[in-house]
Amino acid sequence: MSTSANSDRIERQILLAAPRGKVWHALVDAESFGDWFGVNLKGQRFVVGETTHGHITYPGYEHLVCEMQIERIEPEQRFAYRWHPYAVDPAVDYTQEPTTLVEFALEEHADGILLRLVESGFDRVPLARRAEAYRMNSGGWDEQMRNIQNYLARH
Known about the structure:
- By secondary structure, this protein is an alpha+beta fold.
- The protein has a single domain, classed as START domain (Alpha-D-Glucose-1,6-Bisphosphate, Chain A, domain 4, 2-Layer Sandwich), CATH 3.30.530.20.
- 29% of the residues lie in helices and 34% in strands.
- A seven-stranded antiparallel β-sheet has the order 1-2-7-6-5-4-3, covered by helices on one side.
- It holds the Pfam family AHSA1.
């Protein structure tokens, strides 16, 4: 896995030893995505222009709901959504804040599929929580890259 970052964006990439269709399914099938990402999305679908939401399944965070506004689904190429980064205080209404854009892109590689992740738009997050949102999501994406790799190895 490799990482790259500046103040506005987080970038990760990982080479996955799995066929493109299998990686794609793990990304755009909402239930599969929820399984590796740690969100209960049972019975839901990702549809461009719609918002999907579910309770986080990580221990200690189950009281939080993850909301994703689906932006783009380009079959077996690109999947993108918007969300409020590190929106973990249930007493705060994040709906008035700008969202960040999360984009996954698939690329053929001799040894599998290269999954590229970019989350951008942190410079628009309110200054009072920008650095913490960036720091937490940066570490979170490291974990999520391992999560999808482990999920694909098991399924």
